[in-house]
Amino acid sequence: MRVAAVVLTKDEEQRVEECLKHLKPSVSYLLVLDDESKDRTVEIAEKTADKVVVRHVEPDFSACRNYAQRLVPKWCPWILVCDVDERFDPYWLSQLPASGDPGINCMRFPRINLPTPDLTWPDYQVRFYRNKPDYVWRHEGLGKDVLYSRKAGKRLDQLEGVTTLEYCPILHLPRRTDITRPWW
Description:
Number of domains: 1
Helix content: 10-25%
Number of strands: 12
Structural class: alpha/beta
CATH architecture: Alpha-Beta Complex
CATH class: Alpha Beta
Number of helices: 4
CATH superfamily: Spore Coat Polysaccharide Biosynthesis Protein SpsA, Chain A
Shape: globular
Radius of gyration: 15 Å
Largest sheet: 9 strands, mixed
Low-confidence stretches: none
Protein backbone atom coordinates (compact mmCIF):
# COMPACT_ATOMS: atom_id res chain seq x y z
CA MET A 1 0.00 0.00 0.00
CA ARG A 2 1.30 3.43 -0.93
CA VAL A 3 1.03 6.21 1.67
CA ALA A 4 2.02 9.86 1.36
CA ALA A 5 2.92 11.71 4.55
CA VAL A 6 2.25 15.45 4.68
CA VAL A 7 4.14 17.64 7.17
CA LEU A 8 3.62 21.41 7.56
CA THR A 9 6.56 23.46 8.84
CA LYS A 10 7.60 27.00 9.77
CA ASP A 11 10.88 27.70 11.52
CA GLU A 12 11.12 24.16 12.88
CA GLU A 13 14.81 23.38 12.42
CA GLN A 14 14.89 21.96 15.97
CA ARG A 15 12.15 19.36 15.30
CA VAL A 16 11.88 18.73 11.57
CA GLU A 17 14.67 16.18 11.18
CA GLU A 18 13.41 13.94 13.98
CA CYS A 19 9.84 14.13 12.65
CA LEU A 20 10.79 13.24 9.07
CA LYS A 21 13.12 10.41 10.10
CA HIS A 22 10.28 9.06 12.25
CA LEU A 23 7.97 8.89 9.20
CA LYS A 24 10.28 8.14 6.25
CA PRO A 25 10.74 4.35 6.66
CA SER A 26 6.97 3.77 6.71
CA VAL A 27 5.71 5.93 3.85
CA SER A 28 6.03 5.84 0.07
CA TYR A 29 6.21 9.61 -0.36
CA LEU A 30 7.14 12.35 2.10
CA LEU A 31 5.94 15.90 1.37
CA VAL A 32 6.88 18.98 3.39
CA LEU A 33 4.97 22.23 2.92
CA ASP A 34 7.01 25.02 4.50
CA ASP A 35 5.69 28.49 5.38
CA GLU A 36 8.76 30.48 4.30
CA SER A 37 10.96 29.50 7.23
CA LYS A 38 13.73 31.92 8.18
CA ASP A 39 15.90 29.21 9.74
CA ARG A 40 17.39 25.98 8.30
CA THR A 41 14.08 24.04 8.22
CA VAL A 42 13.96 23.76 4.40
CA GLU A 43 17.63 22.77 4.11
CA ILE A 44 17.15 20.03 6.73
CA ALA A 45 13.86 18.81 5.23
CA GLU A 46 15.36 18.51 1.75
CA LYS A 47 17.76 15.84 3.04
CA THR A 48 14.91 13.46 3.92
CA ALA A 49 11.68 14.51 2.17
CA ASP A 50 10.79 13.47 -1.36
CA LYS A 51 9.46 16.96 -2.04
CA VAL A 52 9.69 20.27 -0.17
CA VAL A 53 7.43 23.13 -1.26
CA VAL A 54 7.94 26.61 0.15
CA ARG A 55 4.78 28.69 0.13
CA HIS A 56 3.24 31.32 2.39
CA VAL A 57 0.71 29.61 4.62
CA GLU A 58 -2.87 30.79 4.67
CA PRO A 59 -4.48 31.98 7.91
CA ASP A 60 -5.13 28.44 9.17
CA PHE A 61 -3.86 24.87 8.89
CA SER A 62 -6.91 23.76 6.86
CA ALA A 63 -5.97 25.86 3.84
CA CYS A 64 -2.39 24.57 4.08
CA ARG A 65 -3.45 20.94 4.38
CA ASN A 66 -5.83 21.30 1.43
CA TYR A 67 -3.06 22.80 -0.69
CA ALA A 68 -0.61 20.08 0.35
CA GLN A 69 -3.22 17.39 -0.34
CA ARG A 70 -3.43 18.58 -3.95
CA LEU A 71 0.35 18.06 -4.24
CA VAL A 72 0.17 14.42 -3.15
CA PRO A 73 0.70 12.09 -6.14
CA LYS A 74 -2.37 10.22 -7.33
CA TRP A 75 -0.42 6.96 -7.05
CA CYS A 76 -0.63 7.33 -3.24
CA PRO A 77 -4.16 6.24 -2.27
CA TRP A 78 -3.61 7.10 1.42
CA ILE A 79 -2.51 10.27 3.21
CA LEU A 80 -0.94 10.50 6.65
CA VAL A 81 -0.95 14.02 8.12
CA CYS A 82 1.61 14.67 10.82
CA ASP A 83 2.36 17.97 12.49
CA VAL A 84 6.08 18.49 13.03
CA ASP A 85 5.50 18.29 16.79
CA GLU A 86 3.59 14.96 16.69
CA ARG A 87 4.92 11.42 16.95
CA PHE A 88 3.00 8.29 15.99
CA ASP A 89 3.38 4.94 17.66
CA PRO A 90 6.45 3.30 16.03
CA TYR A 91 4.80 -0.13 15.89
CA TRP A 92 1.71 1.27 14.14
CA LEU A 93 3.93 3.08 11.65
CA SER A 94 5.82 -0.14 10.92
CA GLN A 95 2.48 -1.82 10.11
CA LEU A 96 1.27 1.09 7.98
CA PRO A 97 1.72 -0.63 4.61
CA ALA A 98 -0.82 -3.27 5.70
CA SER A 99 -3.38 -0.77 7.07
CA GLY A 100 -5.32 -0.18 3.85
CA ASP A 101 -8.51 -2.07 4.69
CA PRO A 102 -11.00 -1.49 1.83
CA GLY A 103 -13.80 -0.72 4.31
CA ILE A 104 -11.91 2.09 6.03
CA ASN A 105 -12.07 5.73 4.94
CA CYS A 106 -10.04 7.17 7.80
CA MET A 107 -8.40 6.46 11.12
CA ARG A 108 -8.55 8.70 14.12
CA PHE A 109 -6.20 8.65 17.06
CA PRO A 110 -6.36 9.95 20.61
CA ARG A 111 -3.69 12.62 20.95
CA ILE A 112 -1.81 13.12 24.20
CA ASN A 113 -1.00 16.82 24.52
CA LEU A 114 2.19 17.17 26.54
CA PRO A 115 3.08 18.36 29.12
CA THR A 116 -0.47 18.27 30.55
CA PRO A 117 -2.23 15.28 28.92
CA ASP A 118 -4.95 15.01 31.55
CA LEU A 119 -6.45 18.40 30.60
CA THR A 120 -7.37 17.43 27.03
CA TRP A 121 -7.40 13.60 26.93
CA PRO A 122 -8.60 12.24 24.61
CA ASP A 123 -8.06 14.87 21.92
CA TYR A 124 -9.14 12.80 18.88
CA GLN A 125 -7.49 13.61 15.56
CA VAL A 126 -8.06 12.19 12.06
CA ARG A 127 -4.56 11.75 10.68
CA PHE A 128 -4.80 8.84 8.21
CA TYR A 129 -7.32 8.89 5.35
CA ARG A 130 -7.97 8.02 1.74
CA ASN A 131 -6.61 10.40 -0.90
CA LYS A 132 -9.91 11.58 -2.39
CA PRO A 133 -10.68 15.00 -3.88
CA ASP A 134 -14.01 14.87 -2.01
CA TYR A 135 -12.20 15.14 1.34
CA VAL A 136 -11.33 18.67 2.44
CA TRP A 137 -10.07 20.25 5.64
CA ARG A 138 -12.19 22.96 7.29
CA HIS A 139 -11.22 25.34 10.04
CA GLU A 140 -13.64 25.20 12.98
CA GLY A 141 -12.25 27.71 15.41
CA LEU A 142 -9.18 28.16 17.54
CA GLY A 143 -6.70 25.44 16.58
CA LYS A 144 -9.44 23.05 15.39
CA ASP A 145 -9.24 21.71 11.85
CA VAL A 146 -11.55 18.92 10.75
CA LEU A 147 -11.65 16.67 7.67
CA TYR A 148 -14.97 16.77 5.76
CA SER A 149 -16.58 14.85 2.96
CA ARG A 150 -18.09 17.42 0.58
CA LYS A 151 -20.34 14.79 -0.96
CA ALA A 152 -21.80 13.69 2.39
CA GLY A 153 -21.70 17.17 3.91
CA LYS A 154 -20.32 15.74 7.17
CA ARG A 155 -17.10 15.34 9.05
CA LEU A 156 -15.25 12.26 7.89
CA ASP A 157 -15.14 10.84 11.41
CA GLN A 158 -18.96 10.90 11.49
CA LEU A 159 -19.33 8.61 8.47
CA GLU A 160 -19.06 4.85 8.13
CA GLY A 161 -15.59 3.44 7.67
CA VAL A 162 -13.92 5.18 10.62
CA THR A 163 -11.50 3.28 12.80
CA THR A 164 -10.49 4.75 16.15
CA LEU A 165 -7.16 3.46 17.37
CA GLU A 166 -7.57 3.88 21.13
CA TYR A 167 -4.43 1.83 21.81
CA CYS A 168 -2.28 3.95 19.50
CA PRO A 169 -2.12 7.55 20.73
CA ILE A 170 -0.24 10.34 19.01
CA LEU A 171 2.25 12.14 21.26
CA HIS A 172 1.91 15.90 20.82
CA LEU A 173 5.15 17.47 22.03
CA PRO A 174 5.02 20.59 24.24
CA ARG A 175 4.59 23.88 22.45
CA ARG A 176 7.69 25.84 21.75
CA THR A 177 8.08 28.82 24.04
CA ASP A 178 10.22 30.84 21.62
CA ILE A 179 7.39 31.44 19.11
CA THR A 180 3.67 32.13 19.03
CA ARG A 181 1.07 31.40 16.38
CA PRO A 182 -2.21 33.31 15.90
CA TRP A 183 -4.25 30.10 16.35
CA TRP A 184 -2.71 29.16 19.75
